[in-house]
Design brief:
505 residues; mainly beta; 7-stranded antiparallel beta sheet; 5-stranded antiparallel beta sheet; 24 strands; 4% helix
């Protein structure tokens, strides 16, 4: 598509109305539009209707298919509007309207109302005057623009100076190879042009080609600054590769995340330092979390799943330590309570909570009584001083006393029970058997019911029945046959009742 003016182009048309006309062929000694124009080319035209006394001059658009010419009027016999042509043959030809011709006036001046297009300008003089570049909406340069040390300014209002590269092109600030510091740069001055900040590319030696992507900003148009050392900023979704943060100003660093905070150390260790001095680390050991402590970190705690192993001593400070387990195993030989106290005025022991079953069970050392007690209590683990106690029974399978000599028993002395040996008339063996000592039973120990309380032998006395007698102070037993023999030897007859009575005393 192009604008063309050609000589001796003239055809006829019988088209009526104000629309596109159809060309019917060249007039004698003239050429057709088809021979001089291509499809969609534009040209100036004139239509003369001698039959109806009408004419029209305008800008036409040629269409090769159908050989037509679309009309755009410039001047006409119809008050410079499109002519509504009637029937009859009209002539159509290429011409230049008078309003479009550039001529030199009597003062040798040329006036141009539109854009001047030329491959070059030549002539004497240092400048081209009379050319309106202000109203030219698309001025073009055929070569480089040399501002000769001058500024490109916008002197009207608060207008911007815009650079709009074509397509994917950009604004390139080139460097020059006249020195090592002559790489491309953009200098942004202050309002007084006395200070400025420079955006400068890397030198050639860096072999760097990268893209600086400015912050996305926000929809409200608020300012977004690049990362700077002198302002407070928030960084979002940033990945740092092999970073070394040498200096962080401020007293506190806060990591505040709505999601997770991940520390991913490919070397398995996260080292903790204070002013450059190591005091600990977090370590991965075969999937276990190991916490190390010290300037030369040594293992303090190892976490394996839900299990924790402390390599050293464990000190727990606070008011209450709660252990919620099914079973608690203590491998130490001794369990010490009240460790480190210089003196103690509090009762101490083991309290067993019983819930709704009843008062708590308590095994304690009674500090005020200086002895062990056990029973039930309404006291809790937070109680101090003297604990209330209701004594209770103790059932044991065995009791070992300090002196394990056989034959000793516990005897109450109104203060406590003491281990003492059996003495006097009764002895006790280690199996609990008791015996009355020899010669221990005296007459005063006997009650008269020793005899009267026994079953009476009213008849049936036999020689085998036994009696208890004193043989010169020694108690002996004998049967009735001894009595019978004695009486016979003394001359008594068994028929002598008096003698028998005397013998029986």
């Amino acid at each position: 598509m192009a604008f063309k003016i050609e000589d001796r182009v003239r055809e006829t048309t019988t088209t009526t109305g104000t629309g596109t006309i159809t060309l019917l062929g060249a007039v004698t000694n003239f050429e057709t539009f088809t021979a001089n124009l291509s499809n969609s080319d534009t040209t100036y035209y004139a239509i003369v209707d001698n039959t109806n006394g009408a004419f029209e001059v305008g800008l036409g658009t040629f269409t090769s298919s159908g050989t037509t010419l679309a009309r755009s009027v410039i001047a006409s016999s119809n008050s410079n509007n499109l002519v509504n042509f009637g029937v009859g043959t009209k002539d159509v030809f290429i011409t230049v309207p008078a309003s479009k011709i550039v001529v030199e006036d009597g003062s040798n001046n040329v006036a141009i109302g539109g854009t001047v297009t030329a491959s070059a300008f030549s002539g004497s003089g240092a400048s081209l005057t009379g050319v309106d570049v202000v109203n030219d909406t698309s001025p073009q340069l055929g070569g480089n623009l040399d501002v000769n040390g001058n500024d490109i300014i916008s002197a009207s209002g608060n207008a911007n100076i815009e650079v709009a590269p074509h397509g994917t092109g950009g604004l390139v600030v080139k460097g020059n190879n006249t020195g090592s510091e002559n790489q491309g740069k953009i200098i942004l001055n202050c309002q007084d042009n006395t200070h400025g900040q420079t955006l400068k590319s890397q030198p050639h030696s860096a072999s760097a080609s990268n893209t600086l992507l400015l912050p996305s900003g926000s929809n409200d148009g608020s300012a977004q600054a690049l990362v700077a050392v002198d302002i407070t900023q928030t960084l979002t979704n940033k990945t740092l590769t092999s970073p070394v943060i040498e200096t962080v100003t401020g007293s506190t660093i806060t990591l505040d995340s709505a999601g997770d905070i991940v520390l991913d150390a490919g070397g398995a260790d996260v080292t903790l330092k204070d002013d450059g001095t190591t005091y600990g680390s977090l370590t991965n050991s075969s999937g276990e979390l190991v916490i190390k402590s010290g300037s030369t970190p040594t293992i303090a705690v190892t976490f394996s799943g839900a299990n924790a192993t402390f390599a050293g001593n464990l000190t727990v400070n606070g008011t209450t330590t709660t252990i919620d387990t099914t079973n608690t195993t203590v491998k130490d030989n001794l369990l010490e309570l009240n460790s480190g106290v210089s003196s103690n005025s509090n009762d101490s022991g083991i309290l067993i909570e019983r819930g709704s079953t009843g008062d708590n069970a308590l095994i304690m050392w009674d500090e005020s009584e200086d002895r062990w007690v056990l029973g039930t209590s309404t006291s809790t683990s937070s109680a101090t001083g003297n604990l209330n106690m209701t004594p209770s029974f103790l059932e044991i399978g065995g009791l070992v006393m300090p002196d394990v000599t056989a034959g000793k028993i516990l005897v109450g002395d109104n203060t406590s029970y003491q281990e003492v040996a059996m003495s006097g008339d009764v002895a006790i063996a280690s199996n609990g058997a008791t015996t009355i000592q020899n010669d221990a039973v005296e007459s005063g120990m006997l009650n008269d019911n020793v005899i009267s309380g026994q079953t009476e032998l009213a008849s049936g006395l036999a020689t085998t029945d036994e009696l208890l007698v004193s043989d010169a102070g020694t108690l002996k037993r004998m049967d009735m046959s001894v009595v019978s023999t004695f009486m016979t030897s003394e001359g008594f007859s068994k028929d002598d009742p008096t003698a028998l009575a005397i013998a029986l005393g």
